[in-house]
Amino acid sequence: MLFTVSGCLDIPEEPNTAQELERLDVVVLQAGKEDSTLLKIHPSDSSIVRADIFPRQYKQQLTFVWSRHTQDTSFVLGEGQTYKIKANTDKGMLPNELEVKDEVGNSILKEFEIAVNMEPMLSTETTPSMNDTLYGNAHTSILFKWKSDDFDSFDDGKLEHTLIIDGQRYPVGHLTEIWQSGFKNGKHTFQIIVFDTFGDSDTLAPTTFYMADTTSYTADTFGDEL
Question: Which residue from 19, 31, 128, 164 has the fewest beta carbons nearer than 10 Å?
Fold first, then answer.
């Protein structure tokens, strides 16, 4: 999905001719990636916001003005087809309007919103812990527990989790603990992935734990006593 503008500019090629500007898009570039859908940036890294016009050959005949507009005020941040956003720029200093003008005064005003998003984080402390030995049998329920956080207030209570047990994925939504049974005697692994509302994620390395089947142990013990 691309952000498009319904209006158009007449780009003068010669005094008596005009060429229509077909489309204007805003694209964010950060860490080698382009985003024209969510316009998402990470606050600790610098980024560039760019105006893309179609047909491309007419960009030299246009001026680009990047501004910040709120209900109370509006001010120009810069000019040019691209605008650089420094790392840790305050949200109130991010552009949200782009005005494109041609040589004869026609203009298009495009509104957009840049999303500043921090990735969620998972704590390395989990239940079970690495190399834990658990006792029971295939009918014994095992507690899996973890903790996730996000610095973005709009993600409070909205983080989604996926629990991976022995390679099998279980989407568990907002839950941060779950009971599961069916484990055979021996080695097992589990892993957690957390996603925020923008799709950014954090993944824990696989945790290994061991199940000691107490059923066979009890049968052997009773047999010895008899």
Answer: 31
The neighbour count for residue 124, using CB atoms within 10 Å, is: 12
Distance of alpha carbon 146 from alpha carbon 122, whole angstroms = 8
What is the three-class DSSP state of 105?
A: coil
Per-residue burial over 207-219, b if 16 or more Cβ lie within 10 Å, else e, is bebebebeeeeee
Q: Would you list the DSSP string of 116-127?
A: E-PPPEE-S--B
pLDDT along the chain (226 residues), means of 10: 43 48 89 92 94 76 93 94 96 95 87 93 96 94 95 82 97 96 96 94 97 70 43
With DSSP H G I counted as helix, E B as strand and the rest as coil, what are the percentages for the chain, rounded to 5?
10, 45, 40
Strands 132-136 and 207-213, sheet pairing: parallel
The two three-digit tokens of residue 23, written as one number: 């489309």
What letter would DSSP give residue 61? G
Residue 23 DSSP code: E
Tokens (6 digits) for 60: 């030299």
Q: Cα dihedral sign for 83, 6, 19, 99?
A: negative
Write the CA distances from 33 to 41, 53, 68, 86, integer angstroms.
10, 19, 24, 16
DSSP H helical ranges for 85-213: none
Q: Measuring CA to CA, which residue among 174, 178, 175, 123 is closest to residue 149?
A: 123
Predicted model pTM: 0.70
